[in-house]
Write a structure and sequence with these properties.
The chain is α/β, with parallel strands linked by helices. It has five helices and seven strands. A hairpin with a 2-residue loop joins β3 and β4. The relative contact order is 0.19.
């Protein structure tokens, strides 16, 4: 099992990333992650079945509806949706998943770990890509430090750097 830093580097080395849970209102963690990845030059796709546009871009109702091959998925939804998204990733052959979670439950659902293991997926079950995507803002640096010193960092599954 890789540590979170190595798993994050591997995930952030991908080129095409879908962010599930981006809102047309712009008020979610998924929106912030989506904007940061887009600003950094990633090819990103917003996914939300209840929105046609988000952050000025087209919003897709599902991962399956995205017209390009996706290398990775960030999940920023309600926790009960997460196992469905992880299963969809498995069926589409998307092997790299990051479940957003900071101090609360976030998008994490324990069933996601089981689905990832059964399908040989690489999964980061917590934290935030913004904690590792340079330049890291002060708030996310503090969050990364706090999670590390308290031993509450995500334990990646299936990453082999």
């Amino acid at each position: 099992m890789a540590d979170i830093k190595k798993a994050a580097e591997s995930f952030l080395g991908l080129h095409t990333i879908a962010v599930v849970g981006v809102s047309s209102k712009g008020d979610t963690a998924a929106n912030i992650i989506y904007k940061k990845l887009r600003e950094q030059g990633y090819k990103v796709f917003a996914v939300n079945p209840n929105a046609k546009k988000a952050e000025g871009d087209a919003c897709y109702p599902s991962l399956q509806s995205i017209p390009d091959q996706v290398d990775g998925v960030v999940i920023g939804t309600a926790p009960d949706v997460t196992p469905i998204i992880v299963s969809e990733c498995a069926s589409l052959g998307i092997k790299n998943i990051w479940i957003h979670r900071s101090f609360g439950v976030g998008s994490f659902h324990p069933e996601a770990l089981k689905i990832a293991a059964e399908n040989n997926l690489s999964l980061i079950p917590g934290g935030c890509p913004m904690m590792f995507s340079e330049p890291v803002d002060p708030g996310h640096k503090c969050m990364r430090w706090f999670l590390k010193v308290t031993g509450k960092q995500a334990r990646p599954v299936g990453f082999h750097p």
